């Protein structure tokens, strides 16, 4: 218990020093850095979207299977026959 309290107090002291001794920086951000940042953000958004799409489909499939819902029930299926006629 004492170690936990000591750890918490050190954490509060560290955060206190962090906020007390901050310095405002006036910096120039190069436009090429911003394009890299935009690409990184877009990549993260696309990856999260793909991840959610894949797992949404898997969850939908499991739920449909558990409830006995067939999504192909009313669809027509064509035969896979290939007819080749030889001309002589």
Q: Specify the biggest β-sheet.
A: none
Number of domains: 1
Q: Estimate the global geometry from the Cα principal axes.
A: elongated
The portion of residues assigned to helices is 55-70%
Determine the N-to-C terminus distance.
95 Å
- Please provide the ordered H/E string of secondary-structure elements: HH
What is the gyration radius calculated from CA atoms?
30 Å
Helix tally equals 2
Could you tell me the mean pLDDT? 85
The fraction of residues assigned to DSSP E strands is under 5%
Describe this structure in words.
The model has no long low-confidence stretch (mean pLDDT 85). The chain is 64% helix and 0% strand. It has one domain (2-67). The protein starts with a helix and ends in a 21-residue tail after the last helix. With 88 residues, the chain is mostly helical. 0% of the residues are buried. It is elongated. The protein has helices spanning 2-20, 31-67.
Quick take:
64% of the residues lie in helices and 0% in strands. It is mostly helical and 88 residues long.
What's the SSE blueprint?
Elements: H1 2-20, H2 31-67
Features:
88 residues; single chain; mainly alpha; 0% strand
């Amino acid at each position: 218990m004492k170690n936990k309290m000591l750890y918490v107090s050190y954490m509060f002291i560290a955060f206190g020093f962090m906020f007390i001794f901050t310095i405002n920086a006036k910096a120039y951000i190069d436009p090429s850095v911003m394009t890299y940042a935009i690409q990184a953000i877009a990549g993260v958004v696309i990856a999260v979207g793909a991840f959610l799409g894949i797992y949404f489909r898997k969850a939908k499939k499991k739920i449909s299977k558990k409830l006995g819902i067939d999504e192909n029930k009313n669809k027509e299926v064509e035969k896979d026959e290939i007819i080749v006629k030889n001309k002589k």
